[in-house]
Cupin type-2 domain-containing protein (Geothrix limicola), 123 residues
Amino acid sequence: MTMQIHSLHDVPTVALGPGTGIQKHMLVGAGAVPHVLQFVRADFQPGQVAPAHAHADMTELFYIEAGAGTLTVDGVSHPLQPGVSFWIEPGEMHEIASSADTSLVVIYVSVHSQNNQAHEIRS
């Protein structure tokens, strides 16, 4: 495979999950890069929530580009603001919500993983 370059406006926009109303730009999809399942820019409108869920064999690495919201991991909440990064390991129950009055822009990469380590919040 050779280097590829894309514009945000040239990649498909799909639903983040059923019933959430959250849209994501699929920058890179499964199969394009070894072990990478997706590279995404998700746009949460005010008050939108990606409901609590866990992945059996996927690690997700996140970066908050803009806005404000809350990350809840295994029942513990963390504030989200621009510049914050974190990752979620397999089996960790996690939910992301934008603030009621502010949108939230999240960049994330999902990779195939078998590790079970704790998440970390950085700002």
